[in-house]
Amino acid sequence: MDELQAVLAQLENSNPNIRESALDKIGTLKPDNAFEIILPFLSESNPEVRETAACNLGEINDSRSLVHLINLAKNDPEEKVRSEALSALDNFRAPEILICLINEVYRAKKSRRPRQIVAQQLQHYDDEKAVDALIILLLGDEDVYVRIFAADSLLALNRYRLLNVWQKTLNDESTYVIEIANKAIENLQNSEELLEAG
Amino acid sequence: MKEEVEKASLTEPSFLFRADDYYKTGNPVGFELGSEDAQQADIQNPLEHVLDKESGDTSIYVSFSTAIKITGGGGSIKFTNKNKILKVALEALKQLEAEGKIRIYTPEEVAELIRQNPKKKISKQANNVKGAMEKNGEILIEGQIPSEFIVPVT
What pLDDT score was predicted for residue B77? Predict the structure, then answer.
């Protein structure tokens, strides 16, 4: 029996840890039918297995995964599964992902990870709606681990309309966030001086 | 507004700090290693503590920071209601660790624990957690720090 056959057999095992390990191997081996193999596990009753399926669906670089990961990020009852689906979306770039990420910012807060993932991924979308969502996270989130990544992402998307936001950010409790705010203000001031000089 | 930033040196901090509105003077911080409280805590691994801890969850780990901003005068720390900051000398913590009373986890050590996890969904987060902890100057302590080592800053 070759390696793939052995892994396929493990996917039938009643032990969820063995099924998870097999899903990880499918994500690494990336057989041609990886998408078809992994997809049914998004509907497993065990949330740990759904989480692992989402992780590996993101790894196989198949654009058909997108709609399923977005659906999972929006609708799965388990916060951990939604988080993993959001994390897996980082393997893709698409307008529908941006909408999904922005919607997450307005969702009732339960745990850190989904908001942290959104704060990280929004930097890949040079779009005013992404900037608005990041401002909400930077100025309004009580969790420093969210604000740190929101600050990093906003620095990557820095623009003049953020000057006021960065000035407010100088009151943050985090020395790192303040450091980023100072850097962003300095970058904006340098750009302005360059424009005036030009 | 008077502002003071206590920040450790780049090489070795002298103190670790903790913002804790619920700390009562004279109490220790954290659960004793192996105690019933520790065994019953909601969070039992560093990844969950750093990434998945939800409000109200108990944890065997306590977060400290190598750098903290303390705001006095008319201001207040933005997200701590009572502005209560504690500090503990790193030397004292190292002594407690040598005595087997606590364990100290740096960002690199936490990342290594996460990296060794056999599940990909966990191990892939090692660098992310390390980066987040470093940016926040965070150190995790497992175990109990006796009250005599805890100094209120504000």
Answer: 42
How many domains is chain A partitioned into structurally?
2
A27 vs B contacts (CB less than 8 Å): 120
Q: Indicate the residue of B5, B77, B135 with minimum beta-carbon distance to A148.
A: B135
This model's pTM is above 0.95: no
ipTM: 0.89
What are the residue boundaries of the structural domains of chain B, listed by start?
3-152
Tell me which residues of chain B, numbers 103 to 142, contact chain A at a CB-CB cutoff of 8 Å. Answer: 118-121, 124, 128, 132, 135-137
The residues in A 123-182 lying below 8 A from B, measured between CB atoms, are 142, 144-145, 148-149, 171-176, 178
Q: Give the closest residue to A119 by CA, choosing from A80, A147, A143.
A: A147
**Among positive and negative, which fits the CA dihedral A94, A97, A99, A102?**
negative
- A12 and A87 inside one domain: yes
Binary contact (A144, B54; C-beta < 8 A): no
Domain that holds residue A62: 1-92
**Option in B54, B78, B137 nearest A171 (CB):** B78
Dump pLDDT digits (tens) for A74-91: 999 999 999 999 999 999
Domain containing residue A45: CATH number: 1.25.10.10
Interface test with B, best of A112, A173, A177 (most B CBs within 10 A): A173
Q: Give pLDDT tens digits for B54-75.
A: 778 899 999 998 876 655 433 3
- Regarding whether A75 and A15 lie in a shared domain, the answer is yes
pLDDT of residue B20: 84
Q: Within 13 A of B57's CA, how many CA atoms are on the CB side?
A: 19
Alpha carbon separation from A143 to A113, A138, A147, B30, B51 (Å, rounded): 10, 9, 6, 21, 11
Residue finishing a domain among A71, A92, A113: A92
- Judgement on whether residues A81 and A101 belong to the same structural domain of the protein: no
pLDDT tens figures, A61-75: 999 999 999 999 999
CB count in 10 Å sphere of residue A108: 4
Q: Are residues A28 and A113 in the same domain?
A: no
